[in-house]
Amino acid sequence: MPKTAVVALGGNAITRSGESGTHAEQAANAQRMARAVCALRDAGWNVVLVHGNGPQVGNLAIQQEEAAGIVPAQPLYSTSAMSQGQLGSLLTLALLTEGRGRLAGVVSVVTHVLVDPDDPAFGTPTKPVGPFFTEAQAQELAGRRGWVVARDGDRGHRRVVPSPRPVGIVEIDAIRALIDQHMIVVAGGGGGIPVIAGDPGLEGIDAVIDKDLTAQRVASSVNAEALVLVTDTEKVHLDFGRPEQRPVTEMTVDEAVKHLEDGQFPEGSMGPKVRAAVRFLREGGTTAVITTAERAGPSLDSGEDRADDTVGTRIVGARG
Predict the structure, then answer these.
(1) Region Disordered: which residues (predicted)?
(2) Which of 11, 88, 99, 192 is catalytic?
(3) Distance of alpha carbon 220 from alpha carbon 226, whole angstroms
(4) What does pTM read for this prediction?
(5) 11 assigned to active site
(6) Residue 75: other Cβ atoms inside 10 A
(7) 196 vs 44, 72, 128, 162, 190, CA distance in Å?
(8) Which residues pair with 313 in a beta bridge?
(9) How much is the pLDDT for 320?
């Protein structure tokens, strides 16, 4: 029986730094991701692919607001659904092209994710979406559109929105059934479309859920053996940015928790990925990996012949 790996990649992997986000750019980047995913499938893994949508959903929101005088603007959770369709199509086409003749199939699932309406995140927006602006541009947009804006690293200011924790995956039974048929499943795009239990049923709510936390919730819910958190860094580093900076090839979940407590992994950087990995392992997962797309497959190989210069960072249960 093939093992299952849930792979989480950011929206920035599809719209890369320095790019304008044209369809051609995004399609080329999706093809690069498809090669890594198909390599995992060729190695015998069932794969569920969860993607981010920060750049894309922010751009869609701007398009909605700029055209509001012509057609009614749609809420943020609807633009999240739009981005799931857009990016799901890009990734599906790329996977079918890369895996031609080798895949049982690829299915992109429009995925709704339950959140708690009382989550404190709704009172403190922190999730950046959309393009970067100068401080003056950001403040003007905040005043005109009612946005909350904040500085995002050294590249400028961005709109920030609430980012509640995922509680449950509405379509999880369908995802399980597709995995059983050995399909590559694209699910939980953009962290999922956030919904709350209302009257008379589920209702959308404006937020963007962290895709790493949604990937963990999907992985734990389908009893996946591995969670792969794709980033643009080959390995996690301790004392990052200091003279004593050093890469980590493997650490236990207890070591990861200690490093989190010591402030080694900031919330705006590796923190969410390490927290997702810890939660996955504590809920029954076997291995979590944080690395680039190209190193994902070798990093899942637990053999002693793994070369440190070809793998990323593995987080595992207690040694011995």
Answers:
(1) 296-320
(2) 11
(3) 9
(4) 0.90
(5) yes
(6) 13
(7) 37, 23, 22, 14, 17
(8) 290
(9) 46
Distance CA 218, CA 175 (A): 9
What pLDDT, in 10s, does the model give residues 28-58?
Answer: 989 999 999 999 999 999 999 999 887 888 8
- Please work out, in degrees rounded to the nearest 5, the angle formed at the alpha carbon of residue 133 by the alpha carbons of 162 and 147: 35
Element (H, E) at 17: none
The two tokens of residue 1 are 């029986």
> Shortest CA distance to 76 belongs to which of 214, 190, 201, 200?
190
Contact 115, 207 (CB under 8 A): yes
How far apart CA 279 and CA 213 sit, in angstroms, is: 9
Percent helix, strand, coil in the chain (nearest 5)?
40, 20, 40
Q: What is the dihedral of CA 72, 82, 8, 194, to 10 degrees?
A: 50
Amino acid, single-letter form, for residue 59: N
Please return the burial class of 3, using the count of CB atoms within 10 Å of its CB with bins 0-12, 13-18 and 19+.
middle
Mean pLDDT of 169-196: 97
Bridge partners of 289, per DSSP, are 228, 314
pLDDT at 60: 87
Catalytic residue, from 188, 211, 285, 297: name it: 211
Q: What are residue 119's phi and psi, to 5 degrees?
A: -55, 130
> Which of 3, 12, 156, 271 is an active site residue?
12
Catalytic residue among 46, 52, 99, 127: 127
Active-site choice (53, 88, 130, 273): 273
Q: Token digits for 98?
A: 């890369």
Annotated active-site residue 273? The verdict is: yes
Which helix (H) or strand (E) covers residue 180, if one does? Answer: helix 172-180
| Known catalytic residue at 53 | no
Phi then psi for residue 291, to 5 deg, are -170, -175
Q: How far apart are the first and last CA of the chain?
A: 26
148-151, strands of its sheet edge to edge: 127-133, 157-161, 148-151
What per-residue confidence (pLDDT) applies to 213?
95
